[in-house]
Amino acid sequence: MSEASGSGDLSSSWSSGAELPSTSRNGAVPQRTQSRLSSRPPASGDEGEEPEASGERPTQPEGAGDERSRRMIRNQYRELIYNVQQNREDMLSSKSNRLTEALEEANKLFSGVSCAREAVLDAQFLVLASNLGKEKANELHSEMTAFDSLAFAEDLLTFMGINRIEVEDNDSDSEGISGGYLPSNAWQKLGEETEKYFRRAPSFHYMLGSFKSDPPVPRQRIERQKKATGGEEKRAMPAQLKKMEESHQEATEKEVERILGLLQTHFKNDPDTPISFFDLVIDPNSFARTVENIFHVSFIIRDGFARLKLDDDKLPIIEPSKDNEGREDDRGAGARNQVVLSLSHQEWKEIVETYEITEPMISPPCQRNEDEMEIP
Amino acid sequence: MSQRKRSKVSGFSQGDDGDEDFNVSQTPTHSQVQRNLERRSQDQVNQKVSELVQFLLVKDQKKIPIKRADILKKVIREYRDVYSEIINRAGRTLQEVFGLQLVEIDTRHHIYILTSNLPRAEGENLRRDNQTAKLGLLIIILSFIFMRGNSAKDGAVWEFLRRLRVQPGERHEVFGDVKKLVTEEFVRQKYLEITPIPLTDPPEFKYQWGPRAAKETSKKDVLRFVAKIQGKDPTFWTSQYTEAEATP
C-alpha cells in the first residue's frame, strides 16, 4: 500500500465517507468507539475528538523520525496486548472497567498509527478485545446474577482461614492477588468440608498396616534380585581367583622345589663343577618349557640357593652357594641383582644344536600337559 | 493384596491369551449364561464373586477406573462365560455389605468405578491424608467449571487457582506438582476431562467435568458448596440453579 495516497484518502474519508480500501481499516475506530460508548456512556465526552486527531496525523509527511515513533507505537500495542492476555479474569470481571480502559488506551495509540504494520497490531488487539467482550457477554445473562470468580476466590480464602495481615494495597493491580497468609491446614480444612459433597467410596486401610501402594513392590523386588545376584557374583569371583592363584602358586613352588632338588643332587655328585646354565634349563623338545625352567630357576637364584655367573668363555654357569652364611650375606647386603636374559626361539634352536642337548636335564613335570605348546 | 498375587500366580499356568475382549464382545444371552451357570459348581462361582469384590475394593483405592479387560484377565479368567452373572453378584455384594455401588461410567469401553451409597457421617474422618486436601482442590475446579457454564479454558482455571496460591509452575506444599495432579491424576481418575481447543496457538484447553465427577457429586451439590462458601442461597445464581435442579 502506498503511504502517500493512503493517508490522503484517510483524511478525506472522515468527511466524505468514501468507500476506499483503506477506510475499512480506520472504519474500525468509530465502530469500536461506539461499542465502547454503549458499554460506558460517561466516557463519551472526549471520544468525538479522537477520530479527527487520527485523521490529521497521516497528512504529516513521513520522515526518519517517524520510524522511531512507529516503533514505539508497536511496542505499546504489544505491551497492551500482553497485559490484556495476562489479566483475562480481571478483564472479564463484571465489576472492573479494565476492558474499557484497555480499549481507550488502544484508541489513544491508534491516533498515532499511520502504517499497515501498526494497524495490524491494532486489529490483533481488537480480535482479543472482542473475544473478551464475547466471553463477558456470555457471562451476563439477563435475569440472573453472574458468577463472580474473584469473589468466590476471596470467599474460599476466607473459608480456608487466610490471615490477612497485609493491607490489600495491590488490589486489581498486575497480579490481582490479594495479600495474606494461608495456614498450613487450609486445604485440609477445605477438603473436610468438601467430603460432604462427594459420594466417594471411602478408601480403607489395614488395621495392622499393609504393604504400601502397588508400584514400589515390583521395583523393590528387582532391586533385591539385582543385589542378591551381585552379591553372589562378588562372592564367587574372589573365591575363584583365590583358588587359581593358590594352585598356581603351589605349582610354581613345587616346580621350584623339584628343580632345586635336581640341582642339589647334581651339586652333591659333583660339588665343584658348575653346571652350564643352558644345559640346565634348555629343554630341546619345547621352547615353552625352556622359558618356564628359566622362570623357575630364577626363584632358586633369588632365594640364594644357587649363584649365576659367567665363566671364562663368558657363558652363564650356575653353581651352588657355599653355605647358609653366604646366602644370608647376599640377602643382607641387599644384593638384589637383576639379570635380563633374552632368548628367542631362534637362539633356543641354536643353543640346542651347539650344546648338543638331546634330553632335558629338568624332566617335564608329568602332570602338566603341554603338548599344544610343543614345538616340532 | 493376597488376592492379586494368587491370581497372578495362577495366571502363568493358564497363559495369557490376548483375545479376551473379542470373546466377551459376543455377549452371551441371559439364557445362555444360565445354562453355563448350571455347568459350574456354585462354590466356584461364589469364590469368583468374592475374589472380584476384593479386587474391586483394592483397585478403587487409587480411584483409577477399573477396566473390564483387567477384571477378565486378573479375576474372571476361565469363567468368562458367566462373566455377567459374576459381575452382577459382585455388585450386589458391594451394595449390601459395603454400601458401595458399582457404576459403569463408560459403556463403550466398559469402565467401572465405585461410589458410596451411604450419606457421609459427620466428623467421622478416621483417615487423614492428602486425599482430603486434593478433594478440596478438585471441588474448587469443578465449581469453577460448573459456574462458568460447564466449561472453562485452562488459562482461566489456572488464573483462578493462582488466586488461591496454587501456581502451576511451582511446587505446592500440600499438592506437590499441582499441574500434574490436575492435568494427569484428576483426568486419569475421570474427575476432569481436558480437551484441546482446535485452532488455538499457543494451544488452549477446555476443562470439563469427567464422568466420575458426575457420579460422585452433582451440579446440585457443587452449587450448594459454592453457595455455602459465598454465604448465599443457591437460587442466587438463577440459571445454574435451574440447571442443577434439572440434572438428576
TrEMBL record, chain A:
Residues 122-174 form the Nse4/EID protein Nse3/MAGE-binding domain. It comes from the Eukaryota. Component of the SMC5-SMC6 complex, that promotes sister chromatid alignment after DNA damage and facilitates double-stranded DNA breaks (DSBs) repair via homologous recombination between sister chromatids. PANTHER family: NON-STRUCTURAL MAINTENANCE OF CHROMOSOMES ELEMENT 4. The lineage of its organism: Eukaryota, Metazoa, Chordata, Craniata, Vertebrata. Keywords: Chromosome, DNA damage, DNA recombination, DNA repair, Nucleus, Telomere. Its main location: nucleus. Pfam families: Nse4-Nse3_bdg, Nse4_C. This is Non-structural maintenance of chromosomes element 4. InterPro entries: Nse4/EID, Nse4_C, Nse4_Nse3-bd. It comes from Grus japonensis (Japanese crane). Residues 23-38 have a biased composition (Polar residues).
UniProtKB/TrEMBL annotation, chain B:
Residues 1-42 are annotated as: Disordered. Residues 23-35 have a biased composition (Polar residues). SMART domains: MAGE. Gene3D superfamilies: MAGE homology domain, winged helix WH1 motif, MAGE homology domain, winged helix WH2 motif. InterPro entries: MAGE (IPR037445), MAGE_WH1 (IPR041898), MAGE_WH2 (IPR041899), MHD_dom (IPR002190). Residues 45-244 form the MAGE domain. This is Melanoma-associated antigen G1. It comes from Grus japonensis.
